[in-house]
Amino acid sequence: MSSEPDRSISTMPDGLWTQPTPSVPVDLGDDPVRRQVVPASMRYDYTPGLATTRFLRGLAEKRFLGERCPQTGDVYIPPRGVSPVSGLRTTEQVEVGPKATITSFCVVHIGFGVNAPPTPFVSALFLPDGAAVSLYGTMGEVPHDQVRIGMRVEPVWVDDDQLTTSMENIRYWRPIDEPDVPAEQLKGHM
Amino acid sequence: MRDVAIVSVAQGEHRRAAGELNEVEMVEPILREALDGVGVTIADIDFTCSGSSDYLAGQAFSFVMTLDAVGAWPPIVESHVEMDGAWALYEAWLKIQTGAADTAFVYSYSKASPGDLPRVMSRMLDPYYVGPLWPDSIAYAGLQARAMLDAGITSERRMAEVAYRNRESARSNPNAQVVGSPSVDELLAAPMLSDPLRLHDCPPISDGGVAVVLAAGDRARDLVERPAWIRGIDHRIDSHQIGARDLTSAPSVALAAQHAGVDGAFDVAEVHAPFTHQEQLVLDGLGLADGVDVNPSGGALAANPMMAAGLIRLGEVANRIMDGSAGRGVAHATAGHLLQQNLVCVLEGGE
What we know:
The complex is a heterodimer.
Chain A: H1 50-59, E1 64-68, E2 75-76, E3 92-96, E4 100-108, E5 121-128, E6 135-138, E7 152-157, E8 170-175
Antiparallel strand pairs in A: 1-2, 1-3, 4-5, 4-7, 5-6, 7-8
Chain B: E1 4-11, H1 23-37, E2 47-51, H2 54-57, H3 62-66, E3 78-81, H4 85-97, E4 103-111, H5 117-122, H6 137-150, H7 156-169, H8 184-188, E5 192-194, E6 197-198, E7 207-216, H9 217-223, E8 228-237, H10 251-260, E9 268-270, H11 276-286, E10 293-294, H12 309-322, E11 328-335, E12 341-348
Parallel strand pairs in B: 2-3, 2-4, 9-10, 9-11
Antiparallel strand pairs in B: 1-7, 1-8, 4-7, 5-6, 8-12, 11-12
């Protein structure tokens, strides 16, 4: 009978995930198989769809193209072709932003991925002027402890010769010299 | 038991690749047509259940984005199965049986086109013994066909006849993807794909979807003149381990048929047999008498949108009952690999 030590969970306090000893003896022998490596990969050619294609083409021109719900009038971005509220097809394209307002933010102390900015940095949700929902991105040109909900911002784009049909066209967002938007006005857009 | 009926069915025009559309754009017109067909909106629906697969979409929680097309505001009561929509319909039927709902909206769909479907399908296999070998779905269907041929249960000619009949039947199906067939002799002259399977033995790869409205009792009678009443529905499962099964039979079909009350005469049967050799296994399991019109739609050999092709079988039978061309029918749906999981539903017209 072998008594397995508890697996460590890096983000959890010691012991939190400790399990009771099995009531049935487990005989793993002298040399149990502990791991099986099975390489796996699957390739997908992802289709963004009609509405998101329009949005991505707009990004290549440094424009934010949302689409309007025919029932509520709200403009959704990035558009998926259908209003998530009414379920109706969106047919009217509406340019929003590029100025925007921070609706929520988070100070990131542990970065991951090769493109993560130096820590600490701020990831945030940016509500483009005229849109009903926010875009995700990171903040720059401001200390992390000065970022706040309601802060007015604008996107900083990559150089024109680097523009593609990608959200990576936006390097980051930076503050602009405009008064904060009161949090009450952001209700329903968080 | 409460009387529950299918009262509306809509499906898209299935095709190899709906390349210009994302999933929500593809299903939106289908969902709209099913609801509009009986003049209801999502506000009239008590329970919504969908079926789809993230492995096909290549995206986590892909069904949440497709839910946009339902119009889920104010919030709705909603569920999802990572299975063919026939099982979503089963969940909705159960929900209505509990009394928690009188109406339900069921839909399922997939775009198989973004990925490599035979490889994606191999991910259903167990992760220790078979999955690491990456057999594709055509190859392991070939194992089943070979076992049936060696057992003398079917022949290559009989398999070709199944392909011919289904694809000729599809001529009357405006949603079908593969319509019409060369002669049986011409089919048999074609080269092997995965011996003993030729191309005609395999289903097409399809993008598409289906949507169905269910209603109980008088609600169903209010919505349509001839509701397609669900008189019996059951689903059963065989072993997941293909090496542990006798591949020349599908006991779970017979068991589900028995519990769904498959007995007596039927005007129509729609069976979900993606590969030609599988149709016979399903029909044997159902134990149908002669004279039943089998797969007038062309079945999965004419259009095979994953996650939807099973629910479409229920919809095809329901349509024929609602339009009065059939009085009683049986529909079958399958999931998993090689007819591993099977659902059988008996549908009837009348009061």
